[in-house]
Amino acid sequence: MSMINVERLAVSYGKGQQQVRIVNDVSFAVEKGEAFGLVGESGCGKSTILGALAGRNQQWTGRIEIDGEQIGQKRSHGQLAKQQMVFQDPFGSIHPRHTIGRTLLEPLEIHDKDRRQKRVEKALTDVGLPLNFRYRYPHQLSGGQRQRVAIARALILEPRILLLDEPTSALDVSIQAEILNLLKDLREREGLTYILVSHDLAVVAHLCDRVAVMQEGGFVEVATKQQLLDGTVTHPYTRVLMDGSRGYVTSSRNA
């Protein structure tokens, strides 16, 4: 059984004559423990799909199943906890006036979880941060450390799925590899399922088993990691993206 099953998903913004459809009739399935990539230029609908899956955008039609359960526009706390998002900007997604400990406690309080301090300690340890970081503020951390906090916050509710929206694009190249390797290790250790949005095929090829190439709100090709590495993709737009990510084959083969 698939962890995520999406059928004929269409997503819009606005109302009435101002309504604009961003995603058109998209269908895909992601198996348990798989990392599935969505790649394409800005505005093609990648993040919009994540927003619909996460319950952030409720103007969608079609069918979405998470772990065998059909979900609607409104979600229960349990449904929301099962999948968590990690955003592009690790500074903007964390409250600047809250300590890291306060940031990690907030989802536990919202979802009425027990053993809160133990959960905070485990989350920090899982992402490779010292326990005393709970007393620090975001401005006292580097960009990579802040993104580790964002990942810890997503993990603290013990989700089955992480929705990753350009999680490394705001980081220096040297730090990007650290975060990608952390995400790879977490998936293998915890049995997590990922959907990763990126405009960079190098990032996708490093982390994902399969990738859907998007253009103008739809899929033009779904390719395996091996097809990306071998250059045996079929759609011209996929080849354009590959040309724009030169060097990804070598780095991904050595990952």
Describe the structure.
By secondary structure, this protein is α/β, with parallel strands linked by helices. The protein has one domain (2-253): Rossmann fold, CATH 3.40.50. The chain is 38% helix and 26% strand. It has 10 helices and 10 strands. The protein has helices at 46-54, 77-82, 100-110, 116-126, 143-155, 173-190, 201-207, 225-230, 236-244, 248-253, and strands at residues 2-13, 20-31, 35-39, 60-66, 69-71, 83-86, 161-165, 193-198, 210-215, 218-224. A 6-stranded mixed beta sheet has the order 6-7-8-3-9-10, with helices on both faces. Strands 2-1-4-5 form a 4-stranded antiparallel beta sheet, with helices on one face. Helix 3 crosses helix 4, helix 4 (116-126) crosses helix 5 (143-155) and helix 5 (143-155) packs parallel to helix 6 (173-190). The longest helix is centred in the last third of the chain and has 18 residues, at 173-190. The protein is globular. The two termini are 29 Å apart. 37% of the residues are buried.
Instruction: Please list the strands of the largest sheet in the order they lie side by side.
Output: 6-7-8-3-9-10
Distance between the termini: 29 Å
The secondary-structure class comes to alpha/beta
The overall number of domains is 1
Radius of gyration: 18 Å
Number of strands: 10
Order of helices and strands: EEEHEEHEHHHEHEHEEHHH
Ranges with pLDDT <50 over ≥5 residues? none
